[in-house]
Amino acid sequence: MRSIDLHSKTNGDNEMKSLADKLKKNQTLVTLHLSSNEIGDIGMEYLSYGIQTNRVIRAFVLSNNRIGDIGVQHLANALQNNTTITDVNLSGNDIGNIGAQYLSAVLQNNTTIAMLDLSNNQIDDIGAHQLYDSLKKNKFFFTQMWNRLVLCCNKFGDNEIKLLAEVLHNNKTVTELNLSGNEIGDQGVQYLCDVLRNNTTVTKLDLLDNRIGDRGVQCLADALRTNTTLVTLVLNDPLNKKNQISDSAAQYLADALQTNRVL
């Protein structure tokens, strides 16, 4: 068996010890899907023991559970010496800045993780700063196939995006960047535009549900006149118009797309 999906099928922490024992012996399972199982810090501790000696699992999906900072500490300890896990999905948990600090310690030297999803947690500017600083120090982040960075639905504003932009300036691997559901304004978009003008790898940028106005959209439009790699840009949803974009700004963006042969 290469993949197992236990979405909403286990009884929280109580069953994680048994599963962890099986993971220690596993030699075939590559993807483990444990979303929506009420897993908390204790369950995460059990699972961390299970993956410490596992050298097969590549994708670890733990979205929509109850994992907090202590649980992330256990996971971080397990990941310190892990050389096989490439995808880590921790979206929809209770991770805050302390948890981000634990993950940052891992990311600084990790050479295998290529997708990290921390959306819908409780990370603000302090945690964001720690994460970005660790990525700046990780040579793998700039030279290998790190492809997805998902940080939507946290509390990131313009200052956090400035830090992210500094990280992305020299990155040649990230292809998908999801920053939806944050507090990004026009100034934050300006920082991203500075990256997009010279970036040759990002193909998808999601900025839905932020605080972007006309000035930010005009900046995006100008960047897209020269960017030749971005193929998907998400700004507004008919049912969610937190971004305040006027018709004139939308037209300015449409005009820019006339010269863009990719988007």
From TrEMBL:
It holds the Pfam family LRR_6. The keyword Transmembrane does not apply. Keywords: Repeat. It comes from the Eukaryota. PANTHER family: LEUCINE-RICH REPEAT-CONTAINING PROTEIN, LEUCINE-RICH REPEAT-CONTAINING PROTEIN 34. This is Uncharacterized protein.
